[in-house]
Design a protein that fits this description.
The complex is a heterodimer of chains A (304) and B (103). Chain A is an alpha/beta fold and 304 residues long. Chain A has six helices and 17 strands. Chain A folds into two domains: 177 residues, FAD/NAD(P)-binding domain (3-Layer(bba) Sandwich); 105 residues, FAD/NAD(P)-binding domain. Chain B has one domain: Glutaredoxin (3-Layer(aba) Sandwich). Classes of the chains: A alpha/beta (304), B alpha/beta (103). At the A-B interface, helix 2 of A face helix 2 of B.
Chain lengths: 304, 103
């Protein structure tokens, strides 16, 4: 027994846009969201690069898109999808609360913060360890912090924190940056920023709160202790595809290997948004994926 | 009950001297995940007498945030008999919030 024409797993910008397109094509739609609609964009205080509005918060954006999808008749349930089964014409989605059947499924699960993988990291989240400089930077006004990472996010975080904090260390495991050159040059010009190259964070030192880190030089093995108040981890993101790897191909980094058509190797299972292999992960490319995946899913359902 | 706004002046009465466990939500208006969690907290508070839920704006109440070492929001802290017994940082699902205080 089919419950919905299309089930969308993930209520971020990609998933909610897919729901809008699928509803406008007259299909019944369920969106399954593990936490709260919006996903990663909720962390963005001010979106300035999405067409139509010069400024909108990630929260307001998410609310508006959710209202739009609901207004068109999409259903939302707050459950975490843990398994997907292919029974040919029926796809079965298993969540932490139940089971739903659909003709087609769109995986728009997004990604999660990549952790450093250092002992006590989880225990110190909110006690000195953070994954979001724009969310938590204010707690470290006039204090000493470190940013770990070498990509654009790490560089932007370090620049943002350099305006607030007394001292910012940027800890990078390579000897140069692959991120945006202008940001790297800007950072080098800041007097309160110290870049530590070829180094990994190997230990967190805490007494209730984080108070220092140990960094190890990759080449010499030398260990240096840096006293600080906060550590911002910006070492990339992990796509949330693991629960569905039985039905889709993943690339070497865990992203769903799929072209612009958002197809996967399983007919009737599509992928959209940040968990798909692609060159640019932005709000606008996520919503574009949602439109494409929904259009393909609708076509698939109509051809059954 | 609905969610109660708490400041430094009523923190002791509402939280530390509460007869029932208290779930304190440290948040800010500019914090998206905090705003996303608000409706879940409102739903949990509605008609609930087993515990109470309070909201603390960290921009207004920086002394309270400092006192309880809040350095990442949203931050949920559970108090029983005036003592912190549990804590969670970041956006979590409604069931997980309930579990935090119900144990």
């Amino acid at each position: 027994m089919i419950d919905y024409d299309i089930i969308v797993i993930g209520g971020g910008p990609a998933g909610m846009t897919a729901a809008i397109y699928a509803r406008r094509a007259g299909k019944t739609v369920l969106v399954l969201e593990a936490l709260s609609c919006g996903g990663q964009i909720l962390n963005t205080p001010d979106i300035e690069n999405y067409p139509v509005e010069a400024h909108i918060s990630g929260f307001d954006f998410s609310q508006k898109v959710q209202e739009q999808a609901k207004g068109l008749g999409a259903e939302f349930r707050f459950e975490k999808a843990v398994e997907l089964r292919d029974e040919g014409d029926e796809k079965v989605v298993v969540t932490n609360k139940g089971e739903y059947r659909a003709k087609a499924v769109i995986l728009a699960t997004g990604s999660a913060n990549r952790k450093l993988g250092v002992e006590d990291e989880d225990k110190l989240v909110g006690r000195g360890v953070s994954y979001c400089a724009t969310c938590d930077g204010n707690f470290y006004r006039k204090k000493t912090v470190a940013v770990v990472g070498g990509g654009n996010t790490a560089l932007e975080d370090a620049l943002y924190l350099a305006d607030l904090c007394q001292k910012v260390y940027l800890i990078h495991r390579r000897d140069s940056f692959r991120g945006d050159d202008t940001n790297a040059e800007r950072l080098k010009a800041r007097e309160n920023v110290e870049i530590v190259y070829n180094a990994n964070v190997t230990k967190l030192i805490a007494e209730k709160k984080l108070k220092a880190i140990e960094v190890t030089d990759k080449n010499t093995g030398d260990v240096r202790t840096i006293e600080l108040n906060g550590l911002f981890v910006a070492v990339g993101r992990v796509p949330e595809n693991n629960n569905f790897a039985n039905l889709i191909d993943l690339d070497g980094s865990g992203y769903a290997a799929s072209g612009e058509d958002c197809h996967t190797r399983t007919p009737g299972v599509f992928v959209a948004g940040d968990n798909r292999a692609k060159a640019l992960r932005q709000l606008v490319t996520a919503t574009a994926d949602g439109a494409m995946a929904a259009t393909e899913a609708v076509k698939y359902v109509n051809e059954r | 009950m609905s969610v109660i706004e708490v400041t430094k002046s009523n923190f002791e009465a509402e939280v530390l001297k509460s007869d029932v466990p208290v779930l304190a939500d440290f948040n800010a208006g500019w914090c998206g995940p905090c705003r996303a969690m608000k409706p879940m907290l409102d739903e949990l508070a509605e008609g609930n007498t087993a515990y109470k839920i309070v909201s603390i704006d960290i921009d207004e109440e920086d002394e309270l945030a400092d006192e309880y070492d809040v350095s990442s929001i949203p931050c949920l802290v559970v108090f029983k008999g005036g003592e912190e017994v549990n804590r969670s940082v970041g956006l979590i699902a409604k069931d997980a919030i309930a579990e935090l205080v119900e144990g």
